[in-house]
Design goal:
This protein has one helix spanning about 90-100, and strands spanning about 20-30, 30-40, 45-50, 60-65, 70-80, 80-85. Helix content is about 10%, strand content about 45%. Strand 5 and strand 6 (about 80-85) form a beta hairpin. Strands 1-2-3-6-5-4 form a six-stranded antiparallel beta sheet.
Length: about 110
């Protein structure tokens, strides 16, 4: 029997990342509310900074502007950084609207 997260999207760590500084409260089934500092985001996932008491494969539900609630799975941990993969890919138009909300300074946004 397979263990860990059974993801419907493929591994895409090379996807374009957008730097952000977004404070979020995620929901975890065992720990309840968890405060996150999201430092970059892509259409496939996001990275956090700061220590989390989670193990690989654990799931969170995070609310993002324009996208709403989305489930994410912890894929990797390095020191105080964690990489999460969304359980589904965010549509391009929704992702662009989310980036505009997360990065109000247009100089921080990558060229499209």
């Amino acid at each position: 029997m397979a263990s860990g997260a059974q993801l419907s999207v493929t591994e895409m760590r090379q996807a374009a990342r957008h730097p952000v500084e977004y404070k979020a409260i995620a929901e975890h089934r065992r720990l309840g509310d968890i405060h996150l500092t999201i430092t970059n985001v892509s259409a496939q996932g996001f990275m956090t900074s700061g220590a989390l008491e989670l193990g690989r494969g654990e799931r969170l539900v995070v609310r993002f502007p324009k996208v709403g609630r989305i489930e994410a799975h912890l894929i990797w941990i390095t020191g105080e950084r964690c990489g999460f993969q969304f359980e589904r890919i965010i549509r391009v138009d929704d992702f662009l609207a989310m980036i505009e909300a997360l990065q109000p300074n247009p100089r921080l946004r990558k060229e499209r």
